[in-house]
Amino acid sequence: MDARFTPEQDEIRRTLRELLLKRCGPDEVRAAVRTAAGYDTGLWDTFARQLGLPGLALPERYGGVGCSVTELALACEESGRTLAPSPLISTAVLAAPLILALGTEDQRAALLPRIAGGDLTAALAVPGAGLATALGLVGDQHGDWAGGGRAGGVQARRADGGWRLYGQAAHVLDGHSARLLVVAAHTGGFARSRTSLFLVREDTEGLVRVRQTSLDETRAQARVELRDVAAEPLGEDADALGALAGLGRSAAAVLAAEAVGAADRALERTVEYVRQREQFGRAIGSFQAVKHRLADVYVRVQAARSAAYYAAWAAGDGGGHERVGGLALAQALEALRTAAAEGIQLHGGIGFTWEHEAHLYFKRASGDELLFGPVHRLRAHAADDARLFEGGEVVV
C-alpha cells in the first residue's frame, strides 16, 4: 500500500479548497441553507459541471470520472471544512452506489449519467431513525427501521402489474429537494417479509415531502410520506440488505473524511483566535494550558484523518475490511465533537453566542452523531462483529 497521494488526488483537494474559500464562507453557508433547496444551486452546478463531483466515483461508461472512494473522500473532506451545504452526500455517497450496485442495465444507463452530470439529485429514504442500522454500522440490520413486516415503516405491495408503497420515512437527507428517491420498503407481508429497494420520482402522485427543522441546518432533512405511491423496483430480485451493508462501509469512510475536514477547520479557527486574543497583556495562545488543550485536539484530528484515509482505501480494496469504516467514523465524530467543543470554550464569551461560526461546527458534530452514531454504538458493533469479547474475556 502506497500511502502517498497521487498528483491527481492533490489537484482535487487544491482545486476544491480554492473554490470553497471563495464561495462558501460562514455568511454564504447561512444564506444557502435558508433557500428553498437548502443549498446554493449555483455552487452545486459548479461542483457538477466543472469539477464532476457527483460522478467522481462512477464508471466512465456512465458519464462518471472513474475514480475510487478515496477521491470521493478527499472531496468530501474539503467540503466538510466549510460545512458546504449540498446534495453531494445524499446523491453521490448514499444513492448512486446503490443504483450502480443493484440497478438493471437500463436503470443504470438512464439514471447514472444524469446523476454524474448534476441534473439528477437523489436521496436514500430509510424509515424511522434507522439509517445507521440499515447501513450495518451500529447493528445487524434487523429491527423496525423498515417496519419489520408489521405496521409502520414503508410497506410495498403488488397492484395492477406494478408496485405501490405506503408509509413514511423521517430524517431523509435532502429528501425535500431530491428529484429521485431510493426507498427501502418491506415486501411479502409478515410471513415472508424481506427488505427491497424502490425508485420513486419527484412528481409521482401521492408523494408528500416536508422539510424538517434540524439541529444541523447545513444538512437539510425531510419527512417523506408515501401515500399509495407507484414505485419501480431497483434491480431484479436484488440483495438489498447486502447492498446496504456494502454501502455502509464506503459511506462511513467518506463521512469520516468529511468529519475530519470539519474538525481540522474548527481547530484552525481556534488556533487563529487564541493567537489574537489577549489576556493579562499576552496572547492566550501562549499559555501552557491552552497549548496542551489544542495539542490534544491536534493529535485526535490527525489520528482520525489517518483512520479515515485508511478506511477509504479499504473500501475500495474490497477484502476483509468490514469493520474499518465504522471505527474510522467513530474516531472522526469524536475528534469533531472535541474540536468543536474546545473551540467554543477557547473563544470565550463570544464563542457561546448562538450566531458564532463555532456553533455551526458544534451542531454538525451533534447532528452527525444522531444520524450516523452514536460513537459508542459504532465501536460496540465493531467489537461484537469481531467477537472481541466472549465469555467476559478479551479474545486475542
TrEMBL record:
Keyword check for Iron, yes or no.
no
* Cofactor(s) the protein needs: FAD
The name this protein goes by in its record: Acyl-CoA dehydrogenase family protein
Going by the UniProt record, its keywords in alphabetical order are: FAD, Flavoprotein, Oxidoreductase
Q: Does the keyword Oxidoreductase apply?
A: yes
Where on the tree of life does the source sit, at the highest rank? Answer: Bacteria
Write down the SUPFAM superfamilies for this protein, in alphabetical order: Acyl-CoA dehydrogenase C-terminal domain-like, Acyl-CoA dehydrogenase NM domain-like
Query: What region holds the Acyl-CoA dehydrogenase/oxidase N-terminal domain?
Result: 6-119
Family per similarity comment: Belongs to the acyl-CoA dehydrogenase family.
Supply one GO molecular-function term.
oxidoreductase activity
Per its UniProt record, what Gene3D superfamilies does this chain match?
Acyl-CoA dehydrogenase/oxidase, N-terminal domain, Butyryl-CoA Dehydrogenase, subunit A, domain 2, Butyryl-CoA Dehydrogenase, subunit A, domain 3
InterPro entries in the record:
Acyl-CoA_Oxase/DH_mid-dom_sf, AcylCo_DH-like_C, AcylCo_DH/oxidase_C, AcylCoA_DH/ox_N, AcylCoA_DH/ox_N_sf, AcylCoA_DH/oxidase_NM_dom_sf
Q: Tell me which residues make up the Acyl-CoA dehydrogenase/oxidase C-terminal domain.
A: 253-379
Recorded hits in Pfam families, A to Z, give: Acyl-CoA_dh_1 (PF00441), Acyl-CoA_dh_N (PF02771)
Stated EC number for the protein is 1.-.-.-
Native source organism of the sequence: Streptomyces kaempferi
